[in-house]
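Model it.
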Amino acid sequence: MDASGTEYTYGHVVVAGHRIESAGPGPAPTDLTDVVRRIDGDGHLLTPGLVNTHHHFYQWITRGLAQDCNLFDWLVSLYPVWARIDEPMVHAAAQGSLAALALSGVTTAADHHYVFPRGAGDLLGAEIRAAAGMGLRFSPTRGSMDRGASDGGLPPDFAVESTEEALLATETAIDRWHDPSPASMLRVGVAPCSPFSVSSELLRSAATLARAKGVRLHTHGSETREEEEYCMLRYGMTPTELLESTGWLGPDVWMAHCIHMSDTDIARFADTGTGVAHCPSSNARVAAGLARVPDLLAAGVPVGLGVDGSASNECGQLGAELRNALLINRLGDHREKALTVRQALRMGTMGGARVLGREDEIGSVETGKLADLALWRLDGLLHSSIADPVAALVLGAPAPLTLLLVNGEPVVEDSHLVTVDEDAVARDTRTQARRLASLTGDR
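Modeled.
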C-alpha cells in the first residue's frame, strides 16, 4: 500500500517507537537488536490502518430511529432529540462510535460535531477525552449552525447558535486543542454544518478563520436534490457554486457525501484539490442517492471513506464501507467496472489520509511512516476459499483483527479492545441512550 500499489505476498514490517523502521519482502532482518515483540503474521493480511473521514459520534445513542425517512425528514425527526444531548451522553456516544471504528480497523477518525445545546457542557471536549482514552488518532471538527427554521433553515431555532457565537467557539476550540506537530494525535478542523443550516456569512467567515489558524475545513455538500433546490431558490447558485463563492474549495477542504454533482462540479473539485468523504451505507440508509465515485477518482479528486453518523449507519464500522463502496457503486453507470477491491481499500487508507491532509504520515506501509497498522486474520472458515487476500478483506465477511497499532501502540488484540473495557462502554452507552429517551419520549 504505497503510491505504486506495491504488494508483498510474503513480507515483513519492523516498528520502532511510533514509526515503521522497515518494510519489504521476505522475513525481517536477522540482526535486529532490542526486539521486544515478534508477531507471526502467517495467514494474515497486513494493511495500513483505515482512515474514517466523516462521522457524527453523538448519534451513537440515537441509532434505530426514523428508520424509513429520507434525509430531510430524518433530520426533522431527530433534531428535537439531539437538542437534548449533554456532556455525559456525548462522551458515552463517542466511546461507542470509536470502539466500533477501532474494531473494524480504523486508526484515524474524523468527527463532525455541530449540535451544541445551551448548558450541555463541554461536548467537543467529551469527544476528545474519549478518543484519547481509546488511543485513536483523532480529527474532530467544530461544527456549527446559525440558520434556524425561522430564518429559512432546516434545524429548529433552539438547535442553532448565532454566527458570532459559532465563530468564537470554533476559534476557542482550535486554540485549546489543535496540535499541528508531526505525528499529532489531535488535529482540529472548522466545520459549519451544511448549506441549508448555515448562513453564507458563517461559511465565508469560517473559511477565513480556518486559513488564519492553518487548519482544515469540512462540511456537507451536494447530499440531496432538495439541497440543490434550496440553494438555487435562496442563493441562485448550486451548492458547489455557493461553496466556491464563500471560499470553500481548495486542498485544505473536504466535503461529505457529494452525491449530486455535475461534470462541472467534479472538474472544480479536481482543479482545486477539494476532497470528498464517500459514505455509501449512510447514503443508502436515508435514500440520498449514489455518488459518482468512479468519475471523481478518474478526475483526480481525493476520495476517502466515511461511516457517517451512527443514526444513519447503525453498523458504525468502516470495514463495512470497503465492501459497500464497491457493491453500491457497481449499481451505477459504470456497472462492474466501477471499482476494484484494491481501489476500495485504497480509498479507506491512502485516500482517507489524503483527504485529511496526512498522506505524508499515514495511509501506507512504508519506511518512515507512522506505525498505524492493521493485521487481519484471513485463514479462518469464512475466508478459507478466497485466494486473493484483498478480495477476502473487501468482499468477504468482516475479518477479525489480530492486531491494530496506532503510533506503534496496540489498541486491538485478538479482536478485542485493549485500551478500554468493552462491556463498560456498552453499559454506559445503553444508560445514556435511555437517559436521552426519557427526556424525549422516543423509546
